[in-house]
Specification:
Belongs to the UDP-glycosyltransferase family. The protein is α/β, with parallel strands linked by helices. Helices cover 39% and strands 17% of the residues. The protein has 2 domains: 254 residues, Rossmann fold (3-Layer(aba) Sandwich), CATH 3.40.50.2000; 179 residues, 3-Layer(aba) Sandwich (Rossmann fold).
Length: 465
């Protein structure tokens, strides 16, 4: 039996690495001829990647190879750090190809510069796109605006224009475009130029499933590069180990708790925290709130734990809501969303969180913060009717020091929570639960994602020189 190897290159940091590993598991389960090597990078002073790979269960068909660490550079962008690895990537692939039959290189959406290495060795190159098909289509539309129509994307800042994006059935408000694109600057230009490499790819593996994004996927059918919707790709092993939190949830009625969590990098100003707290208190809903603090270290934004929630919450809030709600720091999101007591999710609408909420049938209220989260919120609320809206266009990224930070009022937040957690939100809940069942079916034998995985593997082997 002929053996083939794929080399995956995720971007630095844990979230894209975990998504990459979960994707490789699906492919390895499908075909015994395949093996995978993952080339890992980590940011300076970040030990999470090494800890993850060290504790990963050994598999003869899944190998991790750490690229040499780069010296700390406080002002370097993530793109600089990635691009600085090109020689190390070339050396690692050159070494690997001597003893293995390489079927292709699969690069993360932020690592598209490594396509040059694949071309140098005459290997097929694929992209692993960790967001959804709608976002992929939106990126292609933005590239056309900038490079074909020569539009200045900055004209969409605070614009009321609605855009005819081909992968959406409804016009897309310019206000939900990723802030990085419309704000401009070196990082935005670098990312847009990276995305221009996608048409060179032999295919794009997308973390989605046909039933969830059928309009977008169908709009790209028959075009190059070919897309493979192989998901939902989820890490379902990250069950919360916080026994105290689990015990508290165990004591709550089914679907009675609204969970508030805003991702690894999500945080709010003290003023916004107080508005959220007031909304929760006035709603009367049971809640579990993962609350973390923003910090700035050497000009870089970070999120850390509060030593005392009393420093930011309204006076007496914890006492008044005792028995009804809990405020906590970081928590394993999958473990909470999978609990029977959780009936709603106030979320930043990151793609992983979106897929997790769908998988567990927990409807969302949208509070996007950065990256493509505003677009995800628009898709969930307007295209699918599968979420309640707090805001679609709230943004925290790419603001100057002089920019006034927008505050969403307690009344707006409270209204969305009430709709989410009462009978009024029943239609949304039914849609999410039904989509969760479709997501599971997509991965089963004969499902849409099962077929897409098989199609990808067949195309990979066909493209081997």
């Amino acid at each position: 039996m002929d053996k083939f190897e794929l080399i995956f290159i995720p971007s630095p940091g844990l979230s894209h690495l975990i998504a990459t590993v979960e994707a490789t598991k699906l492919l390895l389960d499908r075909d015994p001829r395949l093996s995978v090597t993952v080339l890992t990078m980590q940011l300076p002073n970040d030990t999470a990647v090494d800890a993850y790979t060290t504790n990963f269960s050994a598999s003869p068909r899944l190998t991790f190879s750490a690229l040499p660490a780069l010296p700390p550079h406080s002002k370097a962008s993530i793109f600089y750090l990635i691009d600085s690895q090109i020689t190390n990537v070339r050396d690692a692939i050159d070494q690997r190809r001597r003893d293995h039959r390489i079927a292709g290189i699969v690069v993360d959406m932020f690592c598209l510069k490594f396509v040059d290495v694949a071309l140098e060795f005459c290997f097929p190159a694929y992209c692993f796109f960790t967001s959804g098909a709608s976002t992929l289509g939106l990126f292609q539309y933005v590239l056309s605006l900038k490079f074909n129509e020569k539009k200045e994307l900055s004209e969409f800042i605070n614009s009321d224009e609605e855009l005819p994006v081909p992968c959406f059935s409804l016009p897309v408000p310019a206000k939900v475009l990723p802030a990085a694109f419309v704000a401009g600057g070196p990082i935005a230009d670098h990312f847009l130029n990276l995305l221009r490499r996608i048409p060179e790819m032999d295919g794009v593996v997308v973390n989605t499933f046909h039933e969830f994004e059928s309009y977008a996927i169908d709009s790209m059918a028959g075009k190059n590069p070919r897309i493979y919707p192989v998901g939902p790709i989820l890490d379902l092993t990250g069950v919360s180990k916080e026994d105290d939190v689990k015990r508290w949830l165990d004591d709550q009625p089914e679907k009675s708790v609204v969970f508030l969590c805003f991702g690894t990098n999500g945080s709010f100003s003290g003023e916004q925290v107080k508005e959220i707290a007031l909304a929760l208190e006035n709603s009367g809903c049971r809640f579990l709130w993962s609350l973390r603090k923003p910090m700035s270290v050497e000009g870089k934004k970070m999120v850390v734990e509060y030593e005392d929630f009393g420093e930011v919450l309204p006076e007496g809030f914890l006492e008044r809501t005792k028995g009804v709600g809990r405020v906590i720091g970081w928590v394993g999101q999958v473990g909470v969303l999978s609990h029977r007591a959780v009936g709603g999710f106030v979320s930043h609408c990151g793609w992983n969180s979106t897929l997790e909420s769908v998988w567990f049938g927990v409807p969302m209220a949208t509070f996007p913060l950065y990256a493509e989260q505003q677009l995800n919120a628009f898709y969930l609320v307007k295209e699918l009717g599968m979420a309640e809206m707090i805001r679609l266009d709230y943004k925290t990224d790419f603001r100057g020091e002089e920019d006034e930070v927008e505050i969403v009022g307690a009344g707006e937040i409270e209204g969305a929570i009430r709709r989410l957690m009462t009978a009024e939100g029943g239609g949304v809940r039914v849609k999410v639960e039904e989509m969760g069942r479709k997501g599971r079916a997509a991965l089963e034998i004969g499902g849409s994602s099962y077929k897409a995985q098989a199609m990808f593997i067949e195309d990979v082997i066909r493209n081997v020189g």
